[in-house]
Amino acid sequence: MPTRLHVFDMDGTLLNGAAALELSTFLGRREVGLEIEQLWHAGQITDFDFWSALLDVCEHATEDDLDTAFEQANWLDGITDTFADIRSRGEVAIVISQSPTFFVEKLRNWGAHEAYGSDVVIGQPLSENATLSPEAKVHITRDALERYGISPADCVAYGDSSSDVELFRWLPNTVAVNGNPVVSGLAAVRYQGNDLREAYALGRTLLNARLRPEQAPVRP
Fold first, then answer.
1. Is the pTM of the predicted complex or chain greater than 0.85?
2. Domain identity same for 12 and 114
3. What Å distances lie between residue 212 and 4, 171, 207, 209, CA to CA?
4. How many structural domains compose the chain?
């Protein structure tokens, strides 16, 4: 059975920026992506309005388009290395994001065990409750811990913004990755930079700190 769980946010944590802006830019509608991001952050449009505009941008996108937009997005360095190291230790990496599931789930090809996002599907009717909530991040993490038989003390969350607040309030081991002031204030440790491997190393430090001396890794 897995011994530890690593929970990653995506936008702002694994990705420098937002999936909606990356998709809009790749599909030649960057101005739309910028506008809806600005209006949403200012509280001037609803989640439904935001997703409706993004779905309009993505209406004619093929799976190849989505794959290429994903590959060319502005990711932090070291994501595949981090997921590979987690797997090599018999641990689990999951990604929980408010971005569309059709984008988030592509991280499974890079080594994430599970990936969750908002219920936004190209070509399908949009629900008023499509957005994955901060509370849902906690529920999904609790479910994963129960399924894998892992204690919350053996879980690390990595995040940067308001959608991570509830998870950071609940879990003891948290890493703010280029975090906003609220998340950084809640985090056990903070990382500023562009290499996920460095943020992950801080997460491992938190986990190793709770080991008994005879369990701690031997340093050369």
1. yes
2. yes
3. 16, 20, 11, 8
4. 2
